[in-house]
C-alpha cells in the first residue's frame, strides 16, 4: 500500500518560524512534525511514502534521505508551481505502485493525529468506497467547513463555514483514495479536493465515506497550536514513537546545558546545543537548537528560534522569537509578539507588545 504525504505548504501563519524552514519541517518535541507522522505511517504497516513537496523542497530529502533510517522507503516529487491539495495528489500519480482498485493513504504532513490508520483503511475497504475521509469533532464547527454524513456513514455534503452548521464533524485532512480515482483529478493545474474533487464526486453519486474518530487531532498552523502540540507530545498526550526521549514534564535534548537551579516544565523542549542560565524558568515552551536563555529569564508558552539569544531577566509570554534574534536585558514581550530572524531588541526597548519587530 502506497501513502502520499502533502508537505508543500508555506505556513505563513507561523512566520517568522517558517522563514527558514517549511512548516512540516519545524521541530515539534525535538523532531520535525513530518517525522512524527511518518512514524505513525510506519507503525501502521505502511512501508513506502511519496512526499509531495513544494516550498523549500530540498530540506525534506536532506533530512530524511531515502527513508531507510526511519524504516520506510521515501520518494520525493516537487511542484514547480502551487497545485493545491488535489493537484499535489495528482502530481505524484506516476510514482504510485498500487493497483487500480487498491487503497492509497493521503496525509497532511503538518497535522498531529492519533488516528488508527489501519482502522481507516479497513473502513474504506469494507464500505467499498472511492474515498474515505477521516473526520474529527470540534467544539465550535462554525470556524470550519463541516462534513455531514447519513446514517450509513456516507458523506452527503461539504459545507463551507456557516453560522449554523448541521454537524460538528470536520475534515481532518487524512484520506484513503481508490488508486484509479487519483488519475481522474485534472493534471497540470491547481485543484482543491475540498472545493472541487469531493463535491464533484458527491454530485456524480460516487461513494464517499466518512470515518469519525475522537482520538488526538491538532492542526499546527498557529504559534499557539505549535506550542500546544509540542507540549502534548512531550507529556504523552499525543503518543509518538519518533519522540527523541522519554515522556515527561520536559524534554532536554543531548548537547544542551541547563543550570542546576533552572526550572523547566509544562512539557517544554530544550533543543540540542541550547543553554538555560541560572534561575531561568521555562514553562510550556519550545527552544530550538542552540538557543540561549540568560540568567533569571522567564519564558512561557513561547517559541525561541535557532541560535536566538534571550538576555538575562527577559520575560517572554506567548511570543515567537525568530532564528538568530537577540533580545537584550530589560525587555518584556507578551500577547503574541513576533520578533523576526536576526532582529536585535536593545536593552529595555520593549515592555509590552503584540506587534512584530
Automatic annotation (TrEMBL):
Residues 248-330 form the Mannose-1-phosphate guanyltransferase C-terminal domain. Residues 3-231 form the Nucleotidyl transferase domain. PANTHER family: SUGAR-1-PHOSPHATE GUANYL TRANSFERASE (PTHR22572). Belongs to the transferase hexapeptide repeat family. This is GDP-mannose pyrophosphorylase.
